[in-house]
Write a structure and sequence with these properties.
280 residues, alpha+beta, C8orf32 fold, 2 domains, two-stranded parallel ribbon, 12 helices, 61% helix
Length: 280
């Protein structure tokens, strides 16, 4: 009984966080509350304290120079050399890479969780750093007189030309790189991407309850997100939760009436309605 209560309290805490204005959302707290559903004993405040302590330890060294490039280089050195944070190249799709508590404990993760650590330490130092939801590989950017792009997976500074090269590597040589792809990410956008990474891992493992939990929280962050409504509706159908499936798929069709998948779903709805009617 206690575990169910803890899970409900954790989900309620995330719902309250998601209901805030975007600028008020604490990304580190949100990432830790996401992890707390997997690790019920996780002490969110203690891990936030670890980030505070890292920033306090880095302060004198990072802020000793007033130059922006030098400060970023010093923060890179502190996090990726002294603290030992690194990208997990051995097991990239290990779900632990997406849980911020595990990343802080193990000092290894994927671009988005390492980027959260970087941005949160930088923010505590007063540096104008933000996450960048770049396609395929989360980045961090220092906003100042000169913008500096940091790859938190490799621990180095990269330039826009390298970003363009990576973009074309994924999307093809004719793909048109747009500098807007390097815009600062909204706080809820970062948490949605973190959850999307976890969801995909669980879908590939056919761990449907955990995949559903990720979609639930993504929709707390963006209640009318059409793609997530469609995914959750189809997952509910797989789990034979027909009433919930019907509700989500009808909402999806209202949110995306011109989607080219409409015909497939519209053909599915009559059978779902019959299944729901049989339950009542």
């Amino acid at each position: 009984m206690a575990s169910h209560r803890t899970a409900a309290e954790t989900r309620s805490r995330f719902a309250a966080l998601a209901a805030q204005a975007d600028v008020e959302i604490d990304v580190a707290e949100g990432a830790l509350v996401i992890a707390k559903e997997e690790y019920p004993q996780l002490d969110v405040s203690a891990y936030l304290g670890q980030i505070d302590a890292m920033a306090a330890s880095a302060r004198a060294m990072v802020l000793a120079d007033t130059g922006e490039t030098s400060r970023v280089a010093r923060l890179n050195y502190f996090l990726f050399v002294r603290q030992g944070f690194r990208g997990n190249t051995d097991d990239y799709y290990d779900p632990r890479n997406s849980y911020l508590n595990e990343v802080l404990d193990r000092r290894t993760g994927i671009p988005i969780t390492l980027g959260i650590v970087y941005a949160e330490v930088g923010r505590r130092l007063g540096l104008p750093v933000c996450g960048v939801s770049f396609p395929g590989h989360f980045l961090v950017k220092h906003l100042g007189e000169r913008e500096l792009i940091i790859d938190p997976f490799t621990g180095g500074i990269i330039d826009a030309a390298e970003c363009a090269r990576r973009y074309r590597e994924v999307h093809g040589p004719q793909a048109r790189f747009d500098a807007r792809l390097l815009r600062p990410a909204a706080h809820r956008e970062i948490l949605r991407r973190l959850l999307a990474n976890l969801k995909q891992i669980f879908v590939e493992r056919q761990d449907w309850p955990r995949a559903l939990a990720c979609l639930d929280r993504m929709l707390l962050l963006a209640p009318n997100a059409a793609h997530e409504l469609r995914e959750r509706g189809l997952l509910y159908q797989r789990l034979e939760c027909f009433s919930a499936a019907l509700q989500d798929l009808e909402r999806y069709l209202q949110a995306a009436p011109n989607d080219d998948k409409d015909d497939q779903l519209r053909a599915l709805l009559p059978a779902l309605r019959r299944q729901v009617a049989q339950l009542h």
